[in-house]
Amino acid sequence: MNTKSREYKNLSDEEIVKLVISKDHNLYEFLVRRYQKKLLSYVGYYIPDYDKAADVVQDVFIKSYINLQGFNSHLKFSSWLYRIAHNESINAIKKYHREVSLEGNENFEAVFLDHTKNIEEIFEKKELRENLKRAVHRLPFKYEEVIILYYFEEKSYEEISDVLRISLGAVGTRINRAKKMLVELYTQHP
Amino acid sequence: MQKKKKVLMERNKLIKENLDPDIAESVMQEIEQKHVKMRSPIYFVLGSTILTLGVICSLLVTIYLFNLFLYKLRIFVPFKFLDFGLTGLQPFVETFPWWHIVIAIVAVIIGIELLKQYDFSYHKNFMALILIVLVSTVGIGFLLDQIGLNEIAENESNLQVIYGHKYKGEAWLVGTLKDIDYDNDVLTIEIPHGEEVEVIVDNEAIFPSGLGFNLGTELRIVGIWEGEFFRAYGITGVTRIYRRLRINSIQPCYGGSCQ
């Protein structure tokens, strides 16, 4: 695996996809290793229970494998994979009835209130990001999902557009509104 | 206590998140053990073809049914029955081409939903695309009706299921005025396809569009069947015929008042 790892390390996702389809399906493991942690973190925003989130991620990779020959090469593989993860997370939310807890950090709101003037600054500060994750869960779902992808997953507008299948304009609008809502949420209802 | 438990759960979660998860192994194991196979490219080509066919079919159905809807409106002018007030409600409901417009709307909704499956649906301005689809289907449907396609199709015996009309109901009648018997207050109405009905004009009959109709006028009549006769409680002519007759200054009086 180590020799193989070195051999395929520099290949792009899309190149590995081609190899998985044409040469060896075992190479799919490289893609899984590349994305398992990222997807676990992403799905974790929606499914706070680690084991359930891990199950969802596993399902995502299996679905992705089954549909690999239907992957649209005009898209980025990561966007395609995140799209599947997004759909699976929504299905899981419906199944598990997401439980969101904003408790557990007494300083959270006080810390947040000190920084509400500049939301970008909060996202940049590592120590506040964890707290902000909880705040984002208070947003309506369509704003929550763009904020998660943009700030926590650091996806571009184009990638978010492909993951959520909404226009670039809608991505921009939702991000701006979400930022305003986040500020309002904590200045009006601390 | 509850709060403490939640804090502990969060902490455990964070600890687990920081460990390197090995989902890859279980994914590959599942693929091997359960013999998970990739779907063949044919599956996706077929899916894409079916999608395209679905869009085309739904739009064609919309165009055709909208054209048929306009045609039926033209034939029956169902709104004319509303001139009789409540009496005209039943004939209006019976002659209005409900299912044509309902299926056309359902088909266009299906078409739009199928269009959403394409990637361009969110890359392009989808609202503009929907508008183009709607304007095109309505426009083409209107043109089809105008070029007389339905009149040609109506004569095809195979298409009678679609084009066969009902020109009379329990309380209404649609036909052309063939003859006027001024002495007995009886009109002879020719229903399309040759059937003739004698209509007795009731003393209290109403004429919402006036009495200025002549032979050849298309009439909408409400009333009741009395054996093979029809007793008319209300008679109205189709507006376009009226206009033509008025222009020609043919103004026969009906009802005996100006004989």
UniProtKB/TrEMBL annotation, chain A:
Protein family per UniProt: Belongs to the sigma-70 factor family. ECF subfamily.
GO BP annotations, alphabetical order: DNA-templated transcription initiation
Entry keyword set: Sigma factor, Transcription, Transcription regulation
Protein's name according to its UniProt entry: RNA polymerase, sigma-24 subunit, ECF subfamily
Domain of life: Bacteria
Gene Ontology molecular-function annotations: DNA binding; sigma factor activity
Domain RNA polymerase sigma factor 70 region 4 type: residue ranges: 130-182
Residue intervals of the RNA polymerase sigma-70 region domain: 31-98
UniProtKB/TrEMBL annotation, chain B:
Keywords from the named record: Membrane, Transmembrane, Transmembrane helix
Domain of life: Bacteria
Transmembrane domains' residue ranges: 42-66, 96-114, 126-144
Listed name of the protein: Uncharacterized protein
Organism the protein comes from: candidate division CPR3 bacterium GW2011_GWF2_35_18
